[in-house]
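Summary of Year 1 activities. Much of the first year was spent building the evaluation harness for sequence design. The harness presents a backbone, in tokenized form, and records the residue chosen at every position. We chose the following record to illustrate the format because it has been used consistently in internal testing since the harness was completed.
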């Protein structure tokens, strides 16, 4: 931007902005001006009528404004609350077995390959590029048990400018594939090295997350040590819970002294207000009460739940218990790395569950749009920083062009702006995602330096 005064703002856009708030699942603000400060924070989002007042306050000229076309709009960046970066290597294949067999047959052997740092670099670079291109501005990643490769993942994420949590996976039990596990001592020591390694780097937007794989992969000793480690560093925790019936039976057999799966994590200090647990398809009311009490969140991964025939999560039940919920791709149990796919599958699952039932309605597209943006930010406890276009939050955003060249859908004169947004959410893809911003910085198209 030209004038010296204009340096107060890094970006100034005029057009349509669609986002969620606590009171409205989708607010479509047409004819608005949005300013982004140099710090990456949103300075204002106001109707164009306020232009003169804003221009005075922020020192910009009319020529500084970038005006969007009628086919374009901004929406908040998508939050993938659960994804396995190494599994991107086989995403789109091998979804023909139930969870425990799928882990043993495909997943553990695939993850064991990440001992090779060159292979890790190739897959992790591709996973970060692919998710960013598809509009994932924030991702909560599982890596593998290999500390150096997991540290490399964090480095790649930082280089591309994505916002993320990264977890080195912990597992000291692996009966089905003994080549892929650590000793209890190693797992704890390496997690400490991983957490310290990330914190020392002082990345602005990449954080460590303590990651016990799931109940059946961990001894009680490991779970409780990891719980303590999360407490000492006051950091996030992620794992899987109640994803499939086979898994739950195994947990009951392995940990007979615990009343349920939730208690296993809770008693070992792993259920906090910084915890995000994937799936939760079979959590009881009693367990959900504990989630609510502790402020722990759930990542709903509908593609994975269908692809591995794990089960169907009733989101309305989770919401009734006031438990925070985000959406995840769960690559590669979920075959798509795109959060647009997670949005669509979440709606489908909800429609299947609420089909023809009295007093029940399925989740609407707008509600699922909120889960994929604001909901994910709440589940990851980032909602004071991202999730929508509230003033003071960081500008994580997607510029959507609904008439991009080669767009996979068509618009007609009778389409309202709401129709246009719906068409993008149901039918669009990365061809429509023209630009991606994280904390006000343009990260897609990729800069030539990455
Ligand atoms: N449970 C334990 N590990 C995994 C995993 O890698 N993917 C899924 N979907 N569930 C798990
Ligand atoms: Fe998972």
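For this record, the design step produced the sequence shown next.
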């Amino acid at each position: 931007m030209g004038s010296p005064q204009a340096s107060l703002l890094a970006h100034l856009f005029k057009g349509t902005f669609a986002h969620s708030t606590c009171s409205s699942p989708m607010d479509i603000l047409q004819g608005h001006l949005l300013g982004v400060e140099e710090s990456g924070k949103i300075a204002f989002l106001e109707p164009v009528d306020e232009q003169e007042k804003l221009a005075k306050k922020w020192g910009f000229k009319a020529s500084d404004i970038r005006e969007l076309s009628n086919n374009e709009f901004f929406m908040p960046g998508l939050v993938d609350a659960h994804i396995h970066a190494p599994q991107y290597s086989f995403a789109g294949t091998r979804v023909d077995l139930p969870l425990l067999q799928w882990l043993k047959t495909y997943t553990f052997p695939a993850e064991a390959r990440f001992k090779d740092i060159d292979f890790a670099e190739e897959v992790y670079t591709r996973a970060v590029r692919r998710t960013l291109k598809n509009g994932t501005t924030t991702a909560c990643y599982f890596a593998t048990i290999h500390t150096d490769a997991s540290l490399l993942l964090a480095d790649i994420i930082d280089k591309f400018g994505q916002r993320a949590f990264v977890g080195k996976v912990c597992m000291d039990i692996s009966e089905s594939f003994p080549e892929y596990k650590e000793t209890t001592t190693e797992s704890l020591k390496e997690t400490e090295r991983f957490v310290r390694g990330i914190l020392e780097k002082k990345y602005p937007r990449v954080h460590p997350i303590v990651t016990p794989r799931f109940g059946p992969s961990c001894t009680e000793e490991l779970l409780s040590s990891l719980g303590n480690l999360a407490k000492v560093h006051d950091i996030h925790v992620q794992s899987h819970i109640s994803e499939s019936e086979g898994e739950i039976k195994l947990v009951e057999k392995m940990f007979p002294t615990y009343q349920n799966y939730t208690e296993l994590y809770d008693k070992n200090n792993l259920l906090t207000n910084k915890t995000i647990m994937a799936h939760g398809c079979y959590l009881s009311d009693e367990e959900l009460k504990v989630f609510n009490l502790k402020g722990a969140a759930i990542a709903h991964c509908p593609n994975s739940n269908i692809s591995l025939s794990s089960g169907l999560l009733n989101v309305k039940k989770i919401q009734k218990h006031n438990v925070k919920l985000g959406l995840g791709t769960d690559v590669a149990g979920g075959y798509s790395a795109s959060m647009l796919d997670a949005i669509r599958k979440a709606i489908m699952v909800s429609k299947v569950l609420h089909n023809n039932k009295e007093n029940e309605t399925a989740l609407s597209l707008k509600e699922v749009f909120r889960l994929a943006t604001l909901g994910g930010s709440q589940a990851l406890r980032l909602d004071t920083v991202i999730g929508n276009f509230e003033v003071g939050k960081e500008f994580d955003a997607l510029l959507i062009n609904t008439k991009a060249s080669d767009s996979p859908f068509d618009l007609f004169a009778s389409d309202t702006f709401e129709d246009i947004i719906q068409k993008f959410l149901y039918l669009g893809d990365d061809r429509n995602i023209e630009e991606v911003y994280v904390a006000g910085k343009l990260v897609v198209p990729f800069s030539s330096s990455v």
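Residues 84, 99, 103, 107, 213-214, 240, 243, 304, 330, 333 surround guanine (ligand 1) (CB under 6 Å). Quantitative recovery figures across the full test set are reported in Table 2.
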